Each structure stands twice: as structure tokens, then as C-alpha cells.
Amino acid sequence: MKTTVMVVDDEKDIRESLTGVLKDEGYEVMVAASAEEAIKKLDSRLPDVILLDIWLPGMDGTEALKEIHAKHQGVPVIMISGHANIETAVRTTKLGAYDFIEKPLSLDKVVITVEHAIEQKRLLEENRQLKQKAWAKYSIIGNSAVIEALKSDIERAAPSNSWVLITGENGTGKELVARNIHLLSNRSGKAFIEVNCAAIPEELIESELFGHEKGAFTGAHQRKAGKFDMADKGTIFLDEIGDMSLKTQAKILRVLQEKSFERVGGNEIITVDARVIAATNKDLKEEVRKGAFREDLFYRLNVIPFHVPPLRERREDIPLLLSHFLKEFAAESAREAPILSREAIEVLCGYRWPGNVRELRNLVERLVIMARSNTVTPEDIPTYIKGSQTAAPGSLFTSSLLKEARRDFEREFIVRKLKEAGGNIARTAEAIGIERSHLYRKIKSYGIEHEEATEHDNA
Ligand SMILES: Nc1ncnc2c1ncn2[C@@H]1O[C@H](COP(=O)(O)OP(=O)(O)OP(=O)(O)O)[C@@H](O)[C@H]1O
Ligand SMILES: [Mg+2]
Q1: Nearest CA to 371 among 383, 384, 380?
Q2: What are the structural domain ranges in the chain?
Q3: CATH number assigned to the domain covering 313-386
């Protein structure tokens, strides 16, 4: 479809000359002799840009601009102004007009302004689509209470400029949280720069973060911008911050405090405005205690703490995540998403997921590729998952009475914990915080088979 321009002017000569020149440029042209006519025509067809005269009989251009904006957001309007109403024209740009052109019209100027307006509209549209894609790519799936709370915390924290520290086990979605904070912040139009502190060798990390001057060290043939430069006005995501050396931590602290840094081998002080989001799977408090993490840096970063809970603590999200990734991988491989049988879902819900959502995602990819039929049954699920069920699938939910459910759970819990402790009763008792004799009685009363118990205990 051709790009369309609407010309609104009461002077026939102007309508005709503009139509002529715009058609020569390859545009399709709609015309209207009054604001009323234009507004009516817009209801049946929207042009890509509108040229609107300010002085019109009846409704004037300023009023028409307001009405067009209210009804048809996103269509750029270029005002045409007579010599006498330049001031009005300036005012219309404050009302959101894209630009204005003065009469007598320079046809070149008209063409260029129309081109620019269309280009800007295209960029805005592209930006909107990219954002939408980013949203789809980074949406946080899950409706467990903890995830809902996390999402609402993200919404509240995002618009502020505060530093954020995200903790959680591997694969729980820490990066996803960081990206959501960025997307929901006022910085979303700017860069999100990711730095994996654990992956960069100690001797390179400073140059990576702060850049270096030419000749700063052997191999520095050229001046190089650092990640902090790139993140100016945007967000810098310091992943695995617990793996950063104390020396680098000191430098980071300085950037956080003074919002400035020096390049390696340089002495110019560079100021940046970057929001810092840090993530770690370590217990930073513990690292502070051990002397491996600076206490002052910990408190500065920890202004807004986020904790992403492991998947096993929000098992109710598993079915949703499964179907989300099934759809994703099916779309990627251009085939129909297989269906998971009820039993298969139960088996997957009963697994411990030490690698959390990442592990689940990888498994779904494998299931989609390896599916032998349209339905995935427990047979298709790897044995290490079937073999390590926390409880027989679903069995914890078979009784309707709380008393019974509690008993079922306690039994399963003890079986599991005993297994984890290699069958050692004393160790298990200590781990779960009850007396050894008490645990022993429970094992007996639940009829838990436990041959090794006495052996280990006596050992
Ligand atoms: N709630 C969720 N909804 C949808 N996808 C998720 C969710 N949580 C995690 N993922 C996906 O799981 C994968 C791992 O997530 P992410 O990289 O954010 O985790 P992480 O905590 O940063 O892991 P690591 O500690 O290993 O770096 C990504 O592909 C991510 O998109
Ligand atoms: Mg990560």
C-alpha cells in the first residue's frame, strides 16, 4: 500500500499544488477543504501524515489538531501557517503537532518535512513492536503467590533509580527479573548492558567495565569504551557479583558512590548515569562474614533486595511453565506442541528441579524434539526425574482431611531427609531439628523401612 498524505486547506490552489508535488513523490493524497470534512474522512481512512492549515473557516486548525490527536493517536500532523499566525504555529507544536511550515510554501520543505514525519512515525512504530517483542520474550510466567508478589515488587521498584540486588539459586530467573525492572523503568529506551562478572578474567574485568586508553597495557591498541560507558542513561546488570574480586568491588563501589570512573590507563574522570542491578546465587551476607565481599558494597547494593525462590518452593507454577515452553519450542521448530499426559505432569511436578526453571526449559526442549507421538507420557521422561520423586506423584493430595495430608507429608518428608543423610538417624534428627529418639519413634510408627538405621547409628 502506498504511503498516504492528507492535505487540509481551504485554498483550492494550495490543495492542488500540494497534491501535485506529493503525487510526484509517489504518495497517495487525500484532500479536505475544511477541518470538519477532514475529521469526517479520517473516520473511514487514516493517512500516514496530515498537512493541516491553521486558519480555516469553521473549526480552526488548532481545534482540529486537538480532535485528531484525541481520536487518532500516532498520526503526525504538520501545520501550515500563514505569516500572521506564526505564534499560533509554535503553540501547536507544544500541543503535539509534528512541525509547521510557513506560507508561502516551499515545496521542497513540504516534501522533506513529510518525509521526516513519516520516518519518525515508522521509528516509533518499530520501537513499539520491539518493546512488545521484548515483553513477550521476558515475560515472567507463573501465578504462585510468591511470583505474583515478585511481579508487583518489580512494578513498584522499577521506576525508581535505586540499586537492586537479586538473589536466588541458578536458573531461577534472576536475569529475567533484572530485564523486567529495566523494561518497566524510565530507562527502557536505553541500553541494558549485561556483565557476567564470573566469566571475565580478573585481569580484564576493569578494562571491560571501565574501558581503557590506547596503550594502557600490552594489547591495548586502541581506546575502548567500557560497559559503564555503554550503560549511560540505561541499566547495567552485574551478574554473579559474588564472584568479583575485592579490588574490583572497591572500584565498583566508587562508581556507585560518585557516579564517575576513570578508564584504565587514563586520568580523565568520566561521569555516568547508570542504574545498577546486581545478581548473585551466593549468600552475600555469608560472603561478607567470610571477608570475601565488602560490607559497604553489600549495603549499598542491597537498597532494594529481590529474592527469586527456587522452583521447588512454587511447584504450582510448573504446569504453566511447562505449557509456556512447550508452545515456545513448538513454534521454534515449526511443529505442533505435544500434549503432556496428566501422569507426565504429575511426575514433573514431583521432581526437585535443582537447576530450576532453566533445567525445566531445557527438558521441555528435549521433550519437544524427542517426542515419539503427540502425547508425552511418563515413559518419555528421563529416569533420573522419575527416580527422584519427592513423593509418589500426586499422592500427597489424595486425602481430603488436613490431618491425613499432614501425616502423609510428614512421612514423605522423613523418608526424603533420611535418604539425604544416607540413612543416618542422628544426622537426620539434627538436620530437621528434632530429638533422635523422637525421630526413631516416628520412623517406627510410620512403618518406614529403614534397614541401615541401626548400623549407621551405631557406627
Ligand atoms: N518465571 C519464568 N517465566 C518464564 N521463563 C523463565 C522464568 N524464570 C526463568 N525463566 C527462563 O529460564 C531461563 C533461566 O532464567 P535466568 O537466566 O533469568 O536465570 P538466572 O537466575 O539468571 O540463572 P543463572 O543463575 O544460572 O544465571 C531463561 O531462559 C529464562 O527466560
Ligand atoms: Mg543469570
Answers
A1: 380
A2: 4-130, 145-309, 313-386, 399-458
A3: 1.10.8.60
User: Which ligand ends up closest to the CA of 327?
Assistant: 1
DSSP label of 337: P
372 C-alpha to center of ligand 1: Å? 28
User: How far is the C-alpha of 229 from the C-alpha of 193, rounded, in Å?
Assistant: 10
**89 half-sphere exposure, CB direction, 13 A CA radius:** 19
| Tens digits of residue pLDDT in 339-382 | 999 989 989 988 889 999 999 999 999 998 888 888 999 889 99
Ligand 1 centroid to Cα of residue 263, in Å, is 33
As a whole number of angstroms, the distance between CA 220 and CA 52 comes to: 56
For 145-309, CATH number?
3.40.50.300
What distance in Å separates the CA atoms of residue 211 and residue 263, rounded to the nearest whole number? Answer: 5
**Distance, CA 171 to ligand 1 centroid (Å)?**
5
The SS3 assignment for 341 reads coil
Q: What is the pLDDT of residues 43-100, one digit of tens each?
A: 999 999 999 999 999 999 999 999 999 999 889 999 998 877 788 888 999 999 999 9
Q: With respect to CATH, is domain 4-130 assigned 3.40.50.2300? A: yes
Ligand number nearest CA of 167 is 1
CATH 3.90.1150.10 fits 399-458, yes or no: no
pLDDT > 70: what percent of the chain? 95
**Whether the Cβ atoms of residue 140 and residue 147 lie closer than 8 Å to each other:** yes
Which atom of ligand 1 approaches the CA of 138 most closely? 31
User: Which residue minimizes the CA distance to atom 28 of ligand 1?
Assistant: 358
Instruction: Kindly report, residue by residue over 1-36, the tens digit of the pLDDT.
Output: 789 999 999 999 999 999 999 999 999 999 999 999
- DSSP β-ladder status, 260-262 and 235-239: unpaired
4-130 with 145-309: one CATH topology?
A: yes
**pLDDT, averaged across the chain:** 88
Distances (CA, A) of 136 to 140, 154, 179, 331: 9, 16, 12, 14
Mean pLDDT of the region 103-110 = 92
Which residue has the least CA distance to atom 10 on ligand 1?
173
- Strands of 112-258 (E only): list them: 164-167, 192-196, 235-239
With b meaning 16 or more CB within 10 Å and e meaning fewer, what string describes 362-374? ebbbebbeebeee
For ligand 2, the distance from its centroid to the CA atom of residue 357, given in whole angstroms, is 11
107 Cβ below 6 A of ligand 1:
no
